[in-house]
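Dear Dr. K.,

Following up on our conversation at the group meeting, I've run the structure prediction for Alpha/beta hydrolase from Paractinoplanes aksuensis. I'm pasting the input sequence below exactly as I used it, so you can double-check it against your construct before we proceed with anything downstream. Let me know if the numbering doesn't match what you have in your notebook.
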Amino acid sequence: MIETLAATHTVIAPDLPGHGDSDRPAGDYSLGAHAAVLRDLLVALGHSSATVIGHSLGGGIALQFAYQFPDRVNRLVLISSGGLGPQLSPMLRGATLPGAGTVVAALARVPQPVTRRVLPLLLAMAPRLLARPDADAVAEGLHLLTDAQRRRSFVRTARAVITWRGQAINATEQLRQLTGLPVLLAWGSDDKTIPPHHHRAVAGLLTDPHLVEIAGAGHYPHETAADRLLPPLEEFLATSTPFRYTEARWRELLAPVG
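The predicted C-alpha cells came back this morning:
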C-alpha cells in the first residue's frame, strides 16, 4: 500500500531492529525498545508526530508507542494487531520453545517455490493453522529467515512478547490512556494467527474506533486485499481529527477510577 499512500502523504516504512535490512543489535527486543527506536527515527527525520500503522507485532509496537510517546502520535492504524488478547496461533507459540531456532532454520532452508507448493497441502490437512490467502506471505517470511542473525532476532522478538501459552502482553489495560485518539482496527475475517474477535472486543474500549473487516482475508490483508483496505484507510486519514496530547488530560486519565 506504500506507493498509493505516498502519492498524498509522507510515508516512513522502517525495518525494525533485527528485521529486514536493519542492524541486528545484541540488546533489547521488547515492545518498549522498538517504540523508542521509532521515536528516535521520527526525531532524526524531523517529524514531530505521525499516524502510526502497525501490523501484527507492529500493532503491538504501535500501541506501545502511543502509550510511551502520546505527544508524537496523531492516529493509530492496527492491522491484524497483536497485544489485544492472549490467543495466538500454535505456530507462533512454537517459536518460543527450546530449539525453535533450529526448527525455523530448517524450514527457512526449504526453497521458497517448494514451500509455496507444500503449504496449501498442509492447509488442506490442518486448515486451522493458517488462512489459505496467507500461504505466499508465510513462504516469503520463512525464506527471509535463512539469514542466521535475522533468525535470532525473530526468535528473540517472539520470546519478548509470546509464551507457549500465547501472547504475554495485553495492551487493553492501557487503552483508557488513549481516550480521544482515533484508531482504525482492520482485520481479515479468516485470520488464523490472531483471532478476529480481539479487534471487535477492543473496539468497545476505545473512544474513537473505526472498524474494517475484510471478508475472506487472513492475517495479511494489507498484502492480499490491499484494494479493499486502502479506501477505508484513506477515508480514515482524511476525515479523522489528529490526536492532541495535553499533560493535564493525561494526568486526569492516570487517576484511579472510582
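Two things stood out to me. DSSP finds twelve helices and six strands in the chain. Residues 90-163 form one domain.

Best regards,
J.T.
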